Every structure is written in structure tokens, then in C-alpha cells.
Amino acid sequence: MLGSVSLCQDKKGSEEHMIEEQSCCCSFCPENSEFACSICPAGGFNTTIALPNSADRSSTISFLKISIICLVLALLASVCSYKKKKLCFKRSDGPDNDEMELAETGNLILQGGNTESTMVNPNPDGSSSGQGEAELVVSTISREIRLGSLVGKGRYGIVYKGTWSGKDVAAKIFDSRDAESWKRETEIYSTTLINHANILHYIAQDNKDAGIALELWLITDYHERGSLFDYLKGNTVSIADALLLAHTACAGIEHLHKEINGTQGKPQIAHRDIKSKNILVKSDGECAVADFGLAVVFDSQKQLIDLPKGTSEKFLVGTKRYMPPELLSNNFRDEDFMSFRRADIYSLSLVLWEIASRTQLYEGHIPAAYKLPYEDDVSAEPTLQAMELIVCQQKMRPAFPSTDEIAASPGLKSWERLCKVIAECWTEEPTWRLSALKMKKGLSHEYNEVRPQPQ
Ligand SMILES: Nc1ncnc2c1ncn2[C@@H]1O[C@H](COP(=O)(O)OP(=O)(O)O)[C@@H](O)[C@H]1O
Ligand SMILES: [Mg+2]
């Protein structure tokens, strides 16, 4: 090997040469030449000592060769193991490089004991109406979502529009104090196979350490038109649009209420907080039922009603304005699951009334401005007593616009049938109310009578 570089000067100290130190005195500054190396002893090195002999040189070269081969082998091995690891993540998390990196992070967190697992619906595009079972995928979806504008705020969650994997999603973020609501809602979505065209489509759940507090996330499809409440406040609807909204809202509730047996089955579920703010309007004009934070599940085998934990009031929950008379008057028969379903039907009838009251009944008709049910009769935040007084004692119900003066117009009969269905569903006696199935069938028949015919 060559030595370090040193300087040779002529003996008068003027000319300088850069030379190899070990060859200095042997080749460049021979004894008695006019050059002398600054580090060479006077008289130069003994060349036979300074230079390695040929045997030493060949053993050094062999050592070098082996070292280089080992280095190359080690390098190859580490490249192979990295590629294999990458391939594993690719298989579980898709083709995107960013996703792979995030999956790796998730894995490390998992091993570190701070599990941030995510339930991801295997059918996140929402294309299928079949019941897909959610699978546990180690991921941190909350970190993969780019949050945009705030689109809604309810009792428990703040809802943002977000982008994930190139598509719009809704991210409902719960405070850790509302963990029970998040737990119940995600349980309903991820374990009870409620995939249906008229139920908000679930994508995933996650939790995120946001510094001082833990954020609980629920990720679903995003619906640009927002809640039915927002939609009806800003728009009037044709009779056909009204019947489409009405029959698809009933279809969502009917799916929720019914039990389906078999491996792809589901138990009976009651919503317990049906109102226009908890129903979304899809871009195709159909409804999607949302917000399952108070839902109850019925285990028909064990005849057990599984109530959400943590609610101080077991049965008197939901939104007072939409509560049925039997709950307001303390006559609710909680031992029978049908009571929960019938309570939902009363609330649903008020939602259908909201739709009916914003319907344009003939050309040139301007429906009255949007109003909540009982808006003129109670305050914005009514008490239970105030609701009990008007609903149970005064037996008041919202009024329909009069059609007495209206000449027969296409679809008016169907709209009147919608009003009849509504009136049958808000009766005081719960057993007289229609089932969600009957509502759905009757209203989808009316929709077919008035729907625009394909050209
Ligand atoms: N998927 C969604 N797409 C668009 N808007 C939504 C979506 N989910 C909820 N929102 C809006 O956010 C509001 C609150 O959502 P919700 O699930 O009812 O929360 P909370 O449990 O707090 O009541 C809704 O009334 C609606 O306006
Ligand atoms: Mg809500």
C-alpha cells in the first residue's frame, strides 16, 4: 500500500515535490541528490526495510480481496432482506410506497406495545351491497388521511371531509371522553355486517395520539349533500325526489331492524336516535342512515338486548324532539325488543314529515320554509316535560300543507299516500305503527308510480 504524501525540498529549501513518503528517500530523493525529504532521516531510509517484500505484498493483496468479497456479500444479503420485507408490506397494504412506509411504522408501533390497529372494511369503495366482514389490518389510517374542511358537528363527533387513497372520505373524530359512543358505533359497523346501500358505508376506525388527548376516528364514505336536515333547509324537492328520499330512508331502517341468519347474517338493531341530522343524502338522491352511537343490538338466541355502556339513562336516550310518546310518558316496555323498533318508527315518521313539508306539489308551488318537527310549539332545546305536554297530553302532531285548493296534479296522490303512511307511524299506540318493511314496500311502490321514466 502506498504511504502518505510528504514533501521533498531541494537542499537549498526552494523547489518542492509532492512524493510518496515511503518511496521518498529510495526513489525520489536518493542519497547525495540535491533533494532531501522533510521527514526522511538524514542519509535516507534503508530501502530493504522501508518497502514491504513481495511475499508480504501478496498476502496483503489476498487479505484485501477477501475483505472486499466479504463486504460485497454482506451488502448483497442486506439488500435481499430489505427487498423481502418490502414485498411483505406490499402484499398486505397495496402498491403505494407511502402506504408501505406507513405499514412499517404501524408494525413497529405494534411491537412496541402501543397498538394502533385499524379495522379496515375490505370493500372500501362501497361498490358492493353484500355484507363484507371487516378484517384487522395493521395500519394507521388516521395518518394517511389528509383532513380538509369541517362538514358537521354532532353531539359526539366533529366530522371533516378528508382524502384517503385518492378518494373523498368523511372522518368523524371523537374526543376520548366519548369513547363509549365511538366504541358502540364502530362495533355496529365492524361486527354486525350492516353493509347496505342505504346505510352509511364504513371504511375504517382508528385511534390517534394527538399529544394531550387520544382522538378516536371513524372513517366512512363522504356525502357532499350532507345531512337530510341541511339538504331540506336549502332545497325543495319534487314529489318523485321526496318519495325516493322517503323510501330509501325506510329501506335503511328496515335493513337495520331485521335479523338475517347465516354466516353473512346480522342481528336486529334499533337506532334510537333517528332524526334528519343523522340521515345523509347521497349524490344519487337516496338516503344513507348514519350515527349509530346509541344503537342497541338484540341477540335473539339468548334473548338479550345489548345496550351501550356508559349512558346514565338506559332507555331515555336520543333527541327529545324526536322521542315517541311512550318514552316521554315513561311507558316504554324495555323488555321487548319490538318496543325499540317501534320507537324508531315514530322518529322516522317525523323525518318523513320533514321531507313531505318541503315537497313542491305542483308547478309554481313554493313550499313553506323548512321547519323542524314541532318547531312552532316548543323551544329550540325543549325539555322532556315540554315534549311530553305537547306529544302525550295535547296529542299534537306536525301539520301537513293543505291540498284542498290544489287541482289534481301528477303524483299528488302518491304524495298524499306518503302523508297517510306518516300518520300511521306516529300513532300514540306503538303496536299500531307500521313496520319499516311495510313502509319501505308501500313507499317504493309509490315512487315507481311517479319516478321519471327513462327516455
Ligand atoms: N359521511 C358524511 N358525509 C357528509 N357529512 C357528514 C357525514 N357524516 C356526518 N356528517 C355531518 O356531520 C354531522 C354530525 O355527524 P354525526 O355522525 O351525526 O355525529 P354525532 O354522533 O356527533 O351526532 C351530521 O349531521 C352531518 O351534517
Ligand atoms: Mg348525530
What is the chain-wise order of helices and strands?
Answer: EEHEHHHEEHEEEHEEHHEEEEEHHHHH
Per CATH, the class of the largest domain reads: Mainly Alpha
Outline type: elongated
Largest sheet: 7 strands, antiparallel
Specify the helix fraction band. 25-40%
What integer value in Å does the Rg equal?
A: 38 Å
| Arithmetic mean of pLDDT | 79
Output the CATH topology of the largest domain: Transferase(Phosphotransferase), domain 1
Number of strands: 15
Strand order of the largest sheet: 5-4-9-10-8-7-6
Structural class of the secondary elements? alpha+beta
The CATH superfamily of the largest domain is known as Transferase(Phosphotransferase) domain 1
Question: What count of domains describes the coordinates?
Answer: 3
Bound molecules: adenosine-5'-diphosphate, magnesium ion
Write the layout of secondary structure elements.
Layout: E1 5-10, E2 16-20, H1 21-28, E3 35-37, H2 47-50, H3 54-93, H4 97-111, E4 118-120, E5 135-137, H5 141-144, E6 146-153, E7 157-164, E8 167-175, H6 179-191, E9 202-209, E10 214-221, H7 228-234, H8 239-257, E11 268-270, E12 279-281, E13 287-289, E14 296-299, E15 304-306, H9 325-328, H10 337-357, H11 384-393, H12 412-425, H13 436-450
Antiparallel strand pairs: 1-2, 1-3, 4-5, 4-9, 6-7, 7-8, 8-10, 9-10, 11-14, 12-13, 14-15
The structure holds adenosine-5'-diphosphate (ADP) and magnesium ion (MG).
Domain Protein kinase: 145-448
Transmembrane segments: 61-82
Enzyme class: transferase
Task: Give a description of the structure.
- Its EC number is 2.7.11.30.
- It is a single-pass type I membrane protein.
- This is receptor protein serine/threonine kinase.
- A 7-stranded antiparallel beta sheet has the order 5-4-9-10-8-7-6. A 3-stranded antiparallel beta sheet has the order 2-1-3.
- It is of the alpha+beta class and 455 residues long.
- The longest helix is centred in the N-terminal third of the chain and has 40 residues.
- The N terminus is likely disordered.
- It has 13 helices and 15 strands.
- The chain is elongated, with a radius of gyration of 38 Å.
- Magnesium ion binds next to loops.
